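PROTOCOL LOG
Step 1. Enter all chains and additional molecules of the complex.
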Amino acid sequence: MTPVALVRELGFRAIRVVAELGSMLLFTLSFLRAAVVPPLRPQRFVDEIYNLGVLSLVIVGVSGFAVGMVLGLQGYNTLVRFGAEGSLGAVVGLSLVRELGPVLTALLVTGRAGSATAAEISSMVTSEQLDGLRMMSVDPMDIVVAPKAIAMIFVMPILTSLFVLAGLLGAYFIGVGLMGLDAGVFLSSLKSSIRFADDIGGCYLKALIFGFLAGLIATFRGYHATPTAAGVSAATTSTVVVTSVAVLIGDYFLTALWGFQI
Amino acid sequence: MMDRPASFDAHVRFDRVHMAFDGRTVFDSLSCAFPRGRITVVLGGSGSGKSTLLRLIGGLIQPEAGRVEVAGHDVTDPHTSLAEVRSRIGMLFQHGALLDSLSVFDNLALPLREHTDLDRAAIAQAVRAQLDAVGLGNVEGLLPGQLSGGMLRRAALARAIIRSPEILLCDEPFSGLDPASLKRIEILLTRINRQRGITLIVVSHHIASTLRLADQALLLLPGRSVCGPPAALRSSSDPEVADFFDEELDVEALDREERAAT
Ligand SMILES: Nc1ncnc2c1ncn2[C@@H]1O[C@H](COP(=O)(O)OP(=O)(O)OP(=O)(O)O)[C@@H](O)[C@H]1O
Ligand SMILES: [Mg+2]
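Step 2. Run joint prediction.
Step 3. Record the structure below.
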């Protein structure tokens, strides 16, 4: 490739990215508007909470418990070398609350609910259901996109809490149940290490932002899918990939800005 | 061009419409008129722009140049209220476009709940009346996915006419149906036109039903269009026009032979 062609190609891509970000911004504004301007649709919102949230409960709970058990095992085996097994609660608690809870929950929910959302909306595009709504003067933003995107913001903190609690339970089960650590030691180390504003606040801030990202990307990709079967699968795949990368990169910046300022 | 009837009241009118997708021209200065209270069948090969024509009428897409007038409103004018225009239009999409997640009843009730002040009982009554009109008795609790192709088409037709539109647009209402269902839809469309005086614009590949149904036929050919009574088009001296009908009749004959053979 000649240098000129390279520069041109780079320019094209840069413009595409900027254009996509711009249309995402407009999309965000229009679903936020649909969420606050009447007609409001509480029933649709509740339905979506059920679809996205309740159906993810088991996978998030089980995964949280498994991750907690691994943390408990690894943490105990490492700490015991330094005679510091008494801080197991602190190590596990901080890892879960600060990083693993919000990040892994976002990845799991994207795989379970984000992909389903993108697939559902893009197949509605393909089968002209959204055009059908437009012809009845019903805004698809209002009845399809906004309830799903807002529900995602809403369920993420709840599922993150579940993940963290299940993780702590898993670590407790390994540390106290299996390794014979004193329950009081585990719990007091956990309690004394976690600070409400910094750790819990940061955890929920991350969960809210990841929920926003997951909801936005899934609905945006679905809404702008090419109306073919290939378009549906492309929308679904790219939702999972883009959300996962966005969550991991976003996590770094959130941690840098929020977590270590003190 | 074929001779038009000396004068008629045009319900929908295209005036030098130019339409292109990514530089590929679909319509180059298309002008035609659809008479009020009549049935116009739109014919043309695959990709000739039949669906695009209907989408232009509904304001779902905008032309590059030209005017599309629906009941006196120019839908290409950004100041025109699309909601007002669309309240006069019913649209039957090729695959029905009923919402997958709602029952047949809720699909039909949706436009009434959105745009009228009718109470529950009145809506239920209207929905049942409309389903009866298309010969669907006991399906209101079913999801669209549980209906056969012919029933789905009829349910979608019921939704399209539930707000008593002046104009009904049908995208290939006969495709993919067995002969009995096909005949049923054909009768329903005729009845809708005769009894309610609704202007019908029907996209179809089906020559036999076109000849039975149409007051006027519009044939879309590459780069031009021909309009006139179907019988006149069929016996046209224009080879391309006559050829279209011929070819299709051959296919028809083949279909019949095959059906007879099995
Ligand atoms: N959204 C779109 N983006 C790009 N091209 C499009 C779009 N919609 C239609 N086209 C193109 O416009 C042309 C006309 O399409 P249209 O769907 O109107 O054809 P049609 O006559 O309805 O064909 P068919 O009988 O297959 O339904 C086709 O070449 C198609 O590729
Ligand atoms: Mg078509």
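Step 4. Note key features.
Chain A has a mean pLDDT of 91.
Chain A touches chain B through 14 residues (CB under 8 Å).
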